[in-house]
Amino acid sequence: MNAAHIASLSHAKVAVEVVPETGSTNADLLARAPTLTEPVLLVAGHQSAGRGRAGRSWLSSPEGSLTFSLAWKFDGGPQQLTGLPLAIGVALGDALAQLGVQVQLKWPNDVLKDGDKLAGILIETQGAPGGGTWAVIGIGLNLIMPDELEARLGRSAAGAPWLARMERDVLLAALLDALADSLRLFAAQGFGAFCARWNLRHAWQGQVVTIIDNGQVLHEGLAAGVDDTGRLLLDTAEGRIAVLAGDVSLRVKE
Length: 254
Hints:
The model has no long low-confidence stretch (mean pLDDT 87). This protein folds into 2 domains: 3-200, 2-Layer Sandwich (BirA Bifunctional Protein, domain 2), CATH 3.30.930; 208-252, SH3 type barrels, CATH 2.30.30.100. It has 254 residues and is α+β, with helices and mostly antiparallel strands. The chain has helices spanning 3-9, 25-32, 84-98, 147-153, 161-164, 168-189, 195-200, and strands at residues 15-22, 40-47, 65-74, 104-106, 110-113, 116-127, 133-142, 208-213, 216-226, 232-236, 239-243, 249-252. The strands form 2 sheets. Strands 1-2-3-7-6-5-4 form a 7-stranded mixed beta sheet, sandwiched between helices. A 5-stranded antiparallel beta sheet has the order 11-10-9-8-12. A hairpin with a 5-residue loop joins strand 6 (116-127) and strand 7 (133-142). The protein contains 7 helices and 12 strands. Helix 1 crosses helix 6. The longest helix has 22 residues, at 168-189. The protein is globular and about 55 Å long.
């Protein structure tokens, strides 16, 4: 992967950096946030300490995945970023569809292919000096899922061999363009501009699901999509409720 080549293929006007290996691209950009002056895409050939939501490890293979983070500054505070992980899911879904890979979205921040996880999204924030908020958007995208990695995960996971055959720089430029366009739209209009598209890709629409937090079942009901703030709508025995994104897991009821 070549940073200058990726930047030349992209219309996003974002600085691009490529490193062969690091612990976590999210951690690297968060540490640099106080001195950043422009958006930065940091791509790693391999992350040795990649993280998922709720502190979980993100396992990946250098040859079979893309791992990168994008630092983007918003003018407001973190409370204005409600729904951003879902908007990023929409951006990835649309970009991957244009590249020939159809995906679905799992609330609040997973991209699925044929029911298995294809990509994860982790967003972390830090206040910017002088005001505003830096959002560091980390993405791990499986291209090829080796058997040994799937065994380490302990569950099935998806791959996208078609994307693995693409030139990496071209693929990254396409994803960067989709993300940058969506981030500008989100800054202007919030998640409401993405809500309908998210619901079109909702993996478990109309299925009975349970919301679990720290092993405890909080809610159960029919998944009815999300509202324009990104809350999951559940039709329960007591009526419709809206669930805020947080450290929760969504499980289709067996």
